[in-house]
């Protein structure tokens, strides 16, 4: 199919494969880490997307997940702890022609990077943010993280964590993110689909990936992601379809009298009472209610796309302001701007 070069000129597309996105760096995570499967899914999906490596930028912060840019044959920035969304925002504003991805863990993005994450999402900068959630600090050897459960015993909480954990999907929706999804590292097809949808979205995208840390928090998601548990524990969201799950779709989700999502037996309430999922609703209230359905990965948990709506992107609106200012006032004069108003001579 036709492709375009960096200048937008027509060119014959070259079929890309996973190897085109593999760097020459040895991939070094703990054996069995879920990061390997996420990396494989990303490399395979990038090949399917047809985006050339030189048109991609991956930005990371600090942590195990932050090694991602080293293992991709694309442009990459290993930035500061928690600041990846801010650094990536600068890249996206300076080079709107590039596809900019952000990769980080739950500690990196929700602790020191919490403000950077929510502001990038509310601004709707065209960043594709992938958050690996393993409910632990892995790189620094097993301290509790912002998503660790209450009572979590770790090196930094020997008597059990007292911190109520964040719900990353709820945070993204509350920040008015225009695309929000969840997947897990045991489902390559699901990960690839989530990455594809995030890439296709015109605006900021947030994807949470449940990821197993087999050294410091092994089996944290096994209760819902193990093959034998998935039918009863994973609630797959499908746009335009009633929300049902179970081996025989015998269970479903309704809105109760308080506007809360509630799991029911379909036979008890009737199929017509089930919520029909609408990921394009402009109001995020229903998506938020779905995000609150499970308070821990030990109970039925929604996965898939929670929200996908349109809103002007930050970089497009900024460019509109710049063009408008130039049209009204002509090209800027930096020397004149610096010399405007009060000035001082410093000896």
Describe this structure in words.
This protein is α/β, with parallel strands linked by helices and 347 residues long. It is built from twelve helices and 13 strands. The strands form three sheets. It has an eight-stranded mixed beta sheet with strand order 4-3-5-6-8-7-13-9, sandwiched between helices. A three-stranded antiparallel beta sheet has the order 10-11-12. Helix 6 links the parallel strand 7 and strand 8. Helix 1 crosses helix 6 (188-200) and helix 3 crosses helix 4.
Summarize the structure.
The chain is of the alpha/beta class and 347 residues long. 30% of the residues lie in helices and 18% in strands. The chain contains twelve helices and 13 strands.
